[in-house]
Structures are given as C-alpha cells and as structure tokens.
C-alpha cells in the first residue's frame, strides 16, 4: 500500500509501505522480531503471516518501498546483494542456459556466475556491454538467455544504453537484468527504460549508512516473480527484521543523499581531472567521459562514485593508503567517503580474467561531507 498523496519519488521514498501502525498509530512502523504468528484455528493466518522465513511485516514494508521506487509490481529483499542475484539467476535459468555479462561488473557477480552457477551448467560469456554494437553481434552469434547489465559499472563507470539493450534482449528472447546499485532509482529507473529486472546491493546507497548488508530484486513479470518469491522462501536468504528496518530508514533520505553525493562527486572529479599527478578520471558527469551524453539522457544525476588512474600501480596504492578523511575500506554508498584499491580489494577475485581492473585504478565513494575537506584530503594524499 502507498499513502495516496505520495506520488513523486521523494514522497514515495518516505511513505511507500510506511503507513503508521494500525493498532497504536506509531508513525514509524515497528520492527517485527517475532519468528512465528498466532493462528486463529489451524491455518487461520492473520494477514497471511505464518513464519519469519516465509513472511515478516517489516520485510513487507521494505519490499513495498522498493517496488514503489523502482516502479515495479514485485520486490523481494534478501540478506545480501549476492543472495538476491543468486535467487534471481536460479529462478530465471536452467542448466544449459547462457548469460551474457558485461566485462566490467562487480567481481562478486562474475564469481557467482563463473564459480557457483557455472559448475551447475550455466554458461558465461562476457562482452563490452557499453558497446551496443558489440552486444548486438554477440547476441546474434548465439542468443543468450539473460543479459546482465551494470550501469554505471563498477569500478570503471562505463555507461550502457539500457533502452537499446532492452530492445536487443526482447528481440532475442533474452531477459535483461540491470544492477542499479550505483545509480539507485533516485537517478535511474531501468524498468521504465524497458529492462525486465532490477537488482540491488542495498548494502550501498539504499541502506546508505554502511551499517546493513542486503539485496533486492524488483520486476514486473508475475510468473518470474513467483519463482523468485518461491526461492526466497524455499532457500531462505531473507533479510532479517532489523536489517529490513534499517534499509527502510536509509531509503527515506535516498533522494537528498543522492543529490549531495552527486554534487560532491562532480567537484572531486573536476578537481582530479585538472591534477598533474592524475592520469585519467572516470566519472560520467565529465564532458570527456565517453558515456557522458548517454548518462545525461538516461540518468537524472551522475552519482557519487569517481574512479581515477594514477601513473602506476605503486602510485595508486600509495594514494589509496594516504587519504585521511576518505577511509580505506571495501564497499561504497555510505554517507562517509571511502577509498578502495579494486585490484587487491573488491575485484581481487577477477584478477587475470576479462573483468580484471587495471592496477593504476583507485575507486572513490564520495560521501556527503564538506566539499572543501574532501578536496583538501585528496590533495594531501596525491602529494605523498
Ligand atoms: N552489485 C554491485 C554493483 C556491488 O557493488 C556489490 C557489492 O559490492 C554487489 C552487487 C553485491 O552485493 P552484496 O555485497 O550486498 O552481496
């Protein structure tokens, strides 16, 4: 359910699935910790709740919020982004099916496909997903069952054309899945652009405070949704009540946070672009970025992640270890700024593969601190 007056994105973020508690009027819906529910006679369930793995009101509230924000009919929340990806892939694929994966995606997605689903008979091919012609050729050569698109991609911020890829997928009978973790629905709405499914690591911007791990699948197709829902129940990778509640709370401020992240990231990108120690800046908001025009069309802001190449791997490692306000840590999307060295941290599992990240690259998750403090920190770290 959605509060009738909530229509715009920021209003939905605050209100969708968040009606005051019916029995007490509590404005903030309570966290329901109970693992089991009283039955009014055998099978007499109140509002369908039976057992915590199959359903929980706090999780329902989060799922309603996620569905509203992505403009999808169904949303499912999971214990992590990878648990969400796994449930979707197992719901959509059978042994013998093949996935066409962008060659610049989160390393864990590659690992899940190559090392978990691969041995069960799921095939994997990679392609430069931001090169629509290359995707068209790869699909024509052998139609895959599923196209996995991450845009902007992690960590090189490549931009893929969601509408064009959705069209290619539709013609080939392939499901088009978009990992919307970097952009979030505040900046990009893949279902409206024609994608079939959106997945998230809600651990990142949706949670927004680096204090809860989670994932989500949002989609419109009823039959596929029933399969994903069945796996959520039958395998059990659900989000716990407290995790669901924290994610819900984070989402309420998503709109304002994404604006601030984008503003700060634009300043950081402009500062780094002009810096003598920097070889290259990857940020879709920069006019020089090859995906800039496409990003301006399909996104309403350019997001909070900036990657940068220094002159050598050694310089990149030194820079990543020298910041003070930017904390050296995995993950991204929290209010605090983080710095990550992908080759040895987030993307270590794809070293030596098509998805390997150049050793000169450092990824910055630009937080919502004061711009002047962020730039001063980067300047001192580049001088070390
Ligand atoms: N997708 C992207 C783009 C990510 O960056 C991550 C994690 O870093 C994931 C998915 C996996 O999510 P989780 O770590 O919540 O399992």
Topology:
Elements: H1 9-15, H2 57-70, E1 74-78, H3 81-92, E2 98-102, H4 107-117, E3 123-127, H5 132-141, E4 146-150, H6 162-172, E5 175-179, H7 184-187, E6 197-201, E7 215-219, H8 222-235, H9 241-251, H10 254-273, E8 278-282, H11 292-298, E9 305-310, H12 313-320, E10 327-328, E11 338-340, E12 361-365, H13 371-382
Parallel strand pairs: 2-3, 2-4, 4-5, 5-6, 10-11
Antiparallel strand pairs: 1-7, 6-7, 8-9, 9-12, 11-12
This protein binds pyridoxal-5'-phosphate.
Pyridoxal-5'-phosphate (PLP) binds near residues 150, 154 and 203.
Explain what the structure shows.
- The strands form two sheets. The protein has a seven-stranded mixed sheet, with helices on both faces. A five-stranded mixed sheet has the order 8-9-12-11-10.
- The chain has a domain of 128 residues: Aspartate Aminotransferase, domain 1 (Alpha-Beta Complex), CATH 3.90.1150.10.
- It starts with 8 loop residues before the first helix and ends with a helix.
- 37% of the residues lie in helices and 15% in strands.
- It is globular, with a radius of gyration of 21 Å.
- With 384 residues, the protein is of the alpha/beta class.
- Bound molecules: pyridoxal-5'-phosphate.
- Pyridoxal-5'-phosphate binds next to helix 3 and helix 4.
What's this, in brief?
The chain has 384 residues and is α/β, with parallel strands linked by helices.
Overall SS class: alpha/beta
Low-confidence stretches: none
**What's the story with the biggest beta sheet?**
7 strands, mixed
What is the typical, i.e. mean, pLDDT?
96
CA-based gyration radius: 21 Å
- For the secondary structure, the number of strands is 12
Could you tell me how far the N terminus lies from the C terminus, measured between alpha carbons in angstroms?
Answer: 54 Å
> What order do the helices and strands follow?
HHEHEHEHEHEHEEHHHEHEHEEEH
What is the CATH first-level class name of the domain at 255-382? Answer: Alpha Beta
Strand fraction: 5-15%
Bound ligands, each once: pyridoxal-5'-phosphate
Give the oligomeric state of the chains in this entry, treating copies of one chain as homo and distinct chains as hetero: single chain
Alpha plus pi helix count: 13
What would the principal axes of the Cα set say about the shape?
Answer: globular
Question: Strands of the biggest beta sheet: in what spatial order?
Answer: 1-7-6-5-4-2-3
Helix content: 25-40%
**In CATH terms, what is the architecture of the domain at 255-382?**
Alpha-Beta Complex
CATH superfamily of the domain at 255-382: Aspartate Aminotransferase, domain 1
